[in-house]
Write the structure tokens for this entry.
Amino acid sequence: MNYTYSYEQLYQFTHGIFITMGCSESDAAMATRVLLSADMRGIDSHGVARLSGYVRLWEAGRINATPNIKVVHETPSTAVIDGDAGLGLVVAPFAMTVAIEKAKVAGTGWVSVRNSNHFGIAGYHAMMALEHDMTGMAMTNASALVAPTFSTERMLGTNPIAVAIPAGAQPPFVADFATTTAANGKLEILQRKQAEAPLGWVQEADGTPSTDANALKKDGSLLPLGSDREHGSHKGYALGSIVDIFSAVFSGASYGPWAPPFPAYVPMPQNMPGVGLGHFFGAMRVDAFRPAEEFKEHMDNWIMRFRSATPAPGHDRVLIPGDPEREMEAIRTKEGIPLVASVANDLKALGEKVGVAFPH
Amino acid sequence: MNYTYSYEQLYQFTHGIFITMGCSESDAAMATRVLLSADMRGIDSHGVARLSGYVRLWEAGRINATPNIKVVHETPSTAVIDGDAGLGLVVAPFAMTVAIEKAKVAGTGWVSVRNSNHFGIAGYHAMMALEHDMTGMAMTNASALVAPTFSTERMLGTNPIAVAIPAGAQPPFVADFATTTAANGKLEILQRKQAEAPLGWVQEADGTPSTDANALKKDGSLLPLGSDREHGSHKGYALGSIVDIFSAVFSGASYGPWAPPFPAYVPMPQNMPGVGLGHFFGAMRVDAFRPAEEFKEHMDNWIMRFRSATPAPGHDRVLIPGDPEREMEAIRTKEGIPLVASVANDLKALGEKVGVAFPH
């Protein structure tokens, strides 16, 4: 059973929770916008379903509600930012804004971030570039759930990559994807349904290919995009590694199996080689390459041509990256955001605990 | 049956061929180095096996042996280069050098290229950054062989991405991969063996999943990394699209299904929206993010930690991107480069035609 809430209802509630954590008014507003953008775009695993998790990290002293986020190193087109253990939902937009400002002057801006934590959906941050006529990129490392090709050990997070490219009359191109075959949120949906996972999503602790949607709870691993060596898992492993290195080795965050876990009850890894989670952001001015109007005309042409590609039998159209999320956003703007009962109940309990009324 | 040649033998021959095309001494040397780096690294589909193909493109007037390669647009951290229909093997190193020079001043350099053609292996160009203590990136679009998710139409090339990251005592991290489940070269190997392809590499013309290694000759398509929607092919489709857009829409090259074909006998597409193939290059100074020695220590630590990940049963070690190619290069440096008979015979015939002796 689902309960449906308006954006405004969930906004007021979420904002109230961040205020009780001690966030400033503007930080609470930013964190709420980023978090709810996931619910609006249909990426339910990264929205208000995670709110309690952020609160628990704050309670555990792993999130600083009043961070002093600062640039600690820079060149004309780069910066490294220390997030001071702030909410990733706040640190990431700060960092993306620095990338955009760099790009205004240097053509492009590239920012690596340390001492942060979960930043919501990568797509939100990448899309910040669009209104400035820039291509935006965002990626982050995450706690280790993914085994490299030929390994049984969890070494990488789902390490997503988002790329947002402006168009003219057409909506923008927005890709936002985990570098695994399937994101953990999809497994959670199957767990609730007590359904099996397709072969190629997970492996058991000993490396056996598995259809057990609960494999991660039994020391199994998610598989890199490509599933197995024969189907290119070494490419997904390389992509996840690149995200890890750009986000954490570039900045001084904790990388690979040392990335700090999101669940507050999981102990921090020993001998961490850096500070907190890492992110990486890029902004490239469209007119750093060709006149903006000309660029947008060709992006429109690119999008229309790909939309007109011959559909396979059983499909009525070919999608452009970003189409499903934009269509979901239009639906939820009109009809509201449905939450599964477990999430609604969790939020209600959270609200009661800290004195913020959950809508009903 | 294989024939084995020394690097020097193939260098002399290949260099001689480029000279007969009218390339300058320095361009012939550069093109030869790039082409043979593929053979040395074991990426046989992109080495001397393609030499006749370049010659046929030149005969067809699609390659200009004496190009005036120039920067046509720039900002402190970006440039667009017109390759003047030169050999991609020459245009790409020129462009990567511009990216490196930009990075020396601005911290990073990003170069999009139009009016080029096949540039050999992406990894060569990305690795040019390493000796400058920079991370290098290289990508290119290519003629359309790949169907987007839910489509039967060939809309994208195999569009590879290469990323090279310097380390200290450890060898560098070098990822270089097509954004498809399998590259076309792997299908060609199966064709020679008259073997079937694994399910998930190709589909038939009507979109049916296929194990036919000859499916591309029957209007079938390669599949994006991920193989099918359930295993994340929309992610491979997004990656291939990003490469296409950065390489060709950024620069003014021909994109998507309009990318010019490599085989000279294939007619050029109608109504091309740009000029030639496109590439995209990046260079990021390591010390644009943190002190170089500190960065390298952590890259060494990253590499050693991943190498020590628990191997799956049946495997004795976990590889780092770039390991297989580097190991192949060590073997071929010692033992020479083996060519299959069809390639050796093709080169011999080419040499006889233009008066360059093929070694025996």
The radius of gyration of chain A is 20 Å. Residues 88-106 of chain A form the longest helix (19 residues).
